Amino acid sequence: MDWAGNISTFSPELLGLKNAEYGDFLLGNINRDHLVDMPRRENFARMLEDIEAGVAMCRDSCEYFSVCGGGEPVNKLAENGTFISTETTYCRLTKMQATDLVLDALERVQPSLSDQDNPSIPSIETAARGA
């Protein structure tokens, strides 16, 4: 909601933007509209359908889906021109690379089950002690 009571949803960054496909992304105004009526608006239904289609595409094609749940709608629209899309630069930099870095770090400090008795392989405990 903005200072004037205008309401949008899905991504707060959409509030105040305009788009040929979705108009101004506004679902109503808290000062004059009933909240229960807002999900019935045509632009809400179109945005919801397109965002869900983009999330489904991510679910079907991206190994990082469990991390992000399908991405940020505003980034898909800004970078790919549509909500019905998948990977964005934002996703690559904030979800994919971050996940890869954490998993790589865990692999370096966590021994496999067969290596637990091998003192030459650091464990999380030895890494924390600085050994």
Report helical residue fraction. Answer: 40-55%
Beta-strand proportion = under 5%
Beta-strand segment tally: 2
Spatial separation of the terminal alpha carbons: 52 Å
Q: Looking at the structure, what is the overall shape?
A: elongated
Structural class designation = mainly alpha
Gyration radius (Cα, Å) is: 22 Å
Order of helices and strands: EEHHHHH
- Biggest sheet overview: 2 strands, antiparallel
Contiguous runs where pLDDT drops below 50 for at least 5 residues: none
The average pLDDT value, as a whole number, equals 86
Order of strands in the sheet with the most strands? Answer: 1-2
Count of helical stretches: 5
Features:
mainly alpha, 5 helices, elongated, 45% helix, two-stranded antiparallel ribbon, 3% strand, 131 residues
Commentary on this structure:
- 45% of the residues lie in helices and 3% in strands.
- It is mainly alpha-helical and 131 residues long.
- The radius of gyration is 22 Å and the shape is elongated.
- The mean pLDDT is 86.
Give a quick precis of the structure.
This protein is mostly helical and 131 residues long. Helix content is 45%, strand content 3%.
What is the topological layout?
Blueprint: E1 6-7, E2 28-29, H1 42-61, H2 65-68, H3 73-80, H4 89-109, H5 124-129
Antiparallel strand pairs: 1-2
